[in-house]
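Technical annex, item 7. During the second reporting period the consortium partners agreed on a shared format for inverse folding records so that results from different sites could be compared directly. Each record opens with the tokenized structure and is followed by the designed sequence. A conforming record, contributed by the partner at site C, is shown below for reference.
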């Protein structure tokens, strides 16, 4: 299974960040699919996940600004983050796991990872 993140590398403050994770070699109608980010100099932060059935879960502190959806026909799932600020600058990863552990930030808890994409929130 391979995951590939795509999206803009630069977003202006107050705008919406949209990232897409394209999955190959496996179906998003199985397993669990998460978005995780790592701000510069900080640890991994779990943002949310979408399940094989389309149910979504979010980190409580991000829930009001975060939306995860999917397109099963394209085998993709997407992240939208509203009203970005410079504090949202990070490397964003998508990842797949066979079990759903809300808030998981241990890389060993995921079977597959994308390579990550740098997003900078700046004017």
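Designed sequence (site C submission):
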């Amino acid at each position: 299974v391979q995951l590939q993140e795509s999206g803009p590398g630069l977003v202006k403050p107050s705008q919406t960040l949209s990232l897409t994770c394209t999955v190959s070699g496996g179906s998003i109608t199985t397993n669990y699919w998460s978005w995780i980010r790592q701000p510069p100099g900080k640890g991994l932060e779990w943002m949310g996940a979408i399940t094989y059935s389309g149910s979504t879960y979010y980190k409580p502190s991000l829930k009001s600004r975060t939306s995860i959806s999917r397109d099963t026909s394209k085998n993709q799932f997407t992240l939208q983050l509203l009203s970005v600020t410079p504090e949202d600058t990070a490397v964003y990863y998508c990842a797949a796991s066979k079990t759903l552990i809300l808030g998981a930030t241990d890389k060993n808890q995921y079977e597959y990872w994308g390579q990550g994409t740098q997003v900078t929130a700046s004017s």
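The chain has a mean pLDDT of 96. The radius of gyration is 13 Å. All partners now use this format for quarterly exchanges.
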